[in-house]
Amino acid sequence: MELTETWFLVLSAALFCIGLVGLLIRSNPLVMFMCVELMLNAVNITFVTFSSVYGDLVGRTAVFFVLVVAAAEVVVGLSIVVALLRVRPTATADDFNVLKG
Amino acid sequence: MEILVFIVAGAIVLGGALGVVFNTKPVHAALSLVASLFGVAVLFIAQEAHFLALVQVVVYAGAIVVLFLFVIMLLGVDSTEDLKVEPLMGQKPVAVVVGVAMFALILGGLFLSGKGGPEGAVALTGVEQRTVAYEEAQPEVDQLGLDLFGRSVLAFEATALLLTIATVGAVVLVNNRGGTRPVDEPGEAAR
User: Fold this and answer.
1) Domain containing A32: what range?
2) Which of B10, B130, B182 lies nearest to residue A54, judging by beta carbons?
3) pLDDT tens-place string over residues A19-57
4) Between 1.20.120.1200, 1.10.10.60, 3.40.50.150, 1.10.150.320, what CATH number should domain B1-82 receive?
5) To the nearest 5 percent, what fractions of chain B are helix, strand and coil?
6) What is the pTM assigned to this prediction?
7) Is residue A100 situated within a structural domain?
8) Shortest alpha-carbon distance between residue B67 and chain A (Å)
9) Complex ipTM value
10) Whole-angstrom Cα distance, residue A5 to residue A52?
């Protein structure tokens, strides 16, 4: 049994789907954010795997940019969460329905 | 030996991911996320991406999760969440079905396009040849740096701008000079 890149791709698919299910199930905004980070990490593993398969540097550069954008996204997203939960500390993602209907 | 490293790191990654999804307390979920991110860093090293593993640990586990924990500490949202409450009828079973279907879709795409070898990867992505060559002998940092400041300099400068915007936006969003106070009524927060 040899370690081919298929193992990495299956692992990253599983990680992506676990993050997806977590994002759909949870209602705490912070935990939903953490599930988004899981999905981004799965994509990073896929990028590095394909970079190793092709011997291509583009995958590594893409991982770098995904990392930077994820950090910026967490910064802005958490500041939004802070601004929202400061007003209503016990709110979940379902309570912010002012734009509904 | 490589298989052993992969299995252990993979178990840590998936175990941490399941911990994030199924932990009721946010702090426990954040710690599971740290475990998962360390596992991902080990997987990066297993594929000779040493600099990316370093950046992963420093940025993700060292900054982003710490940011999560700071927000949890600041807001005191450590309340346990009931995973059985469903605001929408049947949402959680449908979510699980969607997750499994997505997994099946990705695996189908991977294995049905050519038995999952290197030919499978080529058939999956449709890419025949590499775009920028990656030498195994040269350190990854040098090649990444040359690529970032050479071929991808526009994207690099754009992400620098993005980080500046994110920082300014974060300061503006949490600016509390108006002095908001906690409210209980739904809808009153919209005023």
Assistant:
1) 7-90
2) B130
3) 999 999 988 889 999 999 999 999 999 999 988 888 888
4) 1.20.120.1200
5) 70, 0, 30
6) 0.88
7) no
8) 8
9) 0.92
10) 8
